[in-house]
Automatic annotation (TrEMBL):
Domain Chorismate-utilising enzyme C-terminal: 168-420
PANTHER family: AMINOBENZOATE/ANTHRANILATE SYNTHASE, ISOCHORISMATE SYNTHASE MENF
Protein name: Salicylate synthase
Alphabetical list of Gene3D superfamilies matching this protein: Anthranilate synthase (3.60.120.10)
Sample GO molecular function, one term: isochorismate pyruvate lyase activity
Cofactor: Mg(2+)
Native organism: Actinomadura chokoriensis
The entry's keywords: Lyase, Magnesium, Metal-binding
Coiled coil: none
This enzyme's EC code(s): 4.2.99.21
Ion transport recorded as keyword: no
Length: 431
């Protein structure tokens, strides 16, 4: 039985002691079969499960589809910025206090996009786990409490996916991008490769196994409209709190991690002293600051934690934090629009890099887009969709890229994709 659209149910709230590990709780809820669509979203110290569909906003290239309780499904054309289409759709919500969860495709930033650009739900049921307590709100709270009582670590034996394939094709793409950089067409571009998984996958078990081995900035697990994904995002794209404070965390510059203390220390020194990696990071931070200046009070824009090393599963990155306060008249959707797609997942200048990616790779979909949560009070949190597994229509795949600049070499950039794919490839659990 699925928990779907209900307009006659009175929302309830339960707060329970939760002895089980939050990861086990999220996996138990996701694999329970009680919900149709769902999203799991982990932030530092807090996990949220959003299940069932009370409201829904789906943005396609030609129309926005909106469903609210008590109202008929509405579909209308849109024009202009896709972020404005989302803002207007949620502004029309009849639900006074709502939280929305979902994803945005990379093509959200393409001038003439095709396909699905975003899918977000306002759930029937939310479960938030933090500090040993579970807060259950919405429909079916008692039933959900029963699931929490028997949450246990997820079973499943991974079948590692070989990441060292498609080398020649990817190296050729990198060489083409380097040539275009030397021609002055752009400064940096992220070139990625797709790795098909040769068997069907258990997405929930893969999430559980992979989360045990990763140290993400955010993690996520979702099933929306038949598209499933599980990932361990290394990077915050944009957060906006209810008071309008905006933060982004560009990561650029990569080396392998997890080979032992001595090897990790050596690669860390390489990362911190490699001119190519330092340049790649510095230009990414500069771009993030320029984007924040477009939507924030300029006097509030700043950089902190400049070029510190962040350990993210099988890799380590150079990372910085850029922040500001929204200018009067600006909304969280404006902040998301300014920072999307992430500079570290697209390139510099962004419009030229996006054009090159579309030409070199075709449609990316969720990869290098964002998983997003938004709220009626103006808060928004989003993470880059990287280090993820995707599954749809019986097919599963992984994807990873590397930042290409004038000093890039095809062999090193291919090796970087292998390092990044190793954050998820060893933990794929067959179905």
């Amino acid at each position: 039985m699925s928990i779907g659209l209900r307009t006659d149910a009175k929302p309830t709230e339960l707060v329970l002691e939760c002895a089980a590990e939050p990861l086990a709780v999220m996996a138990r809820l996701a694999g329970s079969g009680l919900f149709g669509d769902y999203v799991v979203y982990e932030r530092p110290g807090s996990w949220t499960f959003a299940g069932g569909t009370l409201g829904e906003v789906v943005l396609d290239a030609d129309a926005v589809h909106v469903r609210w309780p008590g109202l008929p499904l509405a579909a209308r054309p849109w024009s202009g910025r896709p972020a404005d289409a989302l803002r207007e759709a949620f502004a029309g919500s009849p639900i006074p206090a709502w939280n929305a969860y979902g994803w945005i495709a990379f093509e959200f930033a393409v001038p003439r996009p095709t396909g699905r650009l975003a899918h977000l739900i306002v759930p029937c049921t939310e479960v938030r786990v933090a500090d040993g307590r579970a807060r259950i709100t919405g429909e079916g709270a008692e039933r959900v409490a029963g699931l929490l009582a028997d949450a246990a670590p997820v079973a499943g034996v991974p079948s590692p996916v070989d990441v060292r394939v498609d080398g020649d094709a990817y190296r050729a793409k990198v060489a083409a991008a380097v040539a275009e950089i030397h021609e002055g067409r752009y400064q940096k571009v992220i070139v990625s490769r797709r790795l098909d998984v040769p068997h069907s996958v258990d997405v929930v078990a893969t999430y559980a196994r992979g989360r045990e081995a990763n140290t993400p900035a955010r993690s996520f697990l979702l099933d929306l409209g038949g598209l499933q994904a599980a990932g361990f995002s290394p990077e915050v794209l944009a957060t906006v709190d209810a008071d309008g404070r905006v933060m982004t965390q560009p990561l650029a510059g990569t080396r392998a991690f997890g080979a032992g203390a001595e090897a990790d220390a050596r690669t860390r020194r390489e990362l911190e002293n490699d001119p190519k990696e330092v340049f790649e990071h510095a230009v990414s931070v500069r771009t993030s600051l320029e984007e924040l200046h477009r939507v924030c009070d300029p006097a509030t824009v700043q950089v902190t934690d400049f070029m510190t090393v962040k350990e993210r599963g099988s890799v380590q990155h150079l990372g910085s934090r850029a922040s500001g306060v929204l200018a009067p008249g600006r909304s969280p959707w404006d902040a998301l629009d300014a920072l999307f797609p992430g500079v570290t997942a697209s390139g510099i200048p962004k419009p030229d890099a996006v054009e090159a990616i579309t030409r070199l790779e075709g449609r990316r979909g969720m990869y290098s887009g964002a998983v997003v949560t938004a709220s009626h009070d103006g808060a928004l949190d989003s993470a880059l969709v990287l280090r993820a597994l995707y599954s749809e229509d019986g097919r599963a795949w992984l994807r990873a890229g590397a930042g290409i600049v004038s000093a890039s070499t095809p062999d090193r950039e291919y090796e970087e994709t292998c390092e990044k794919l190793s954050s998820i490839a060893p933990y794929v659990v067959p179905r």
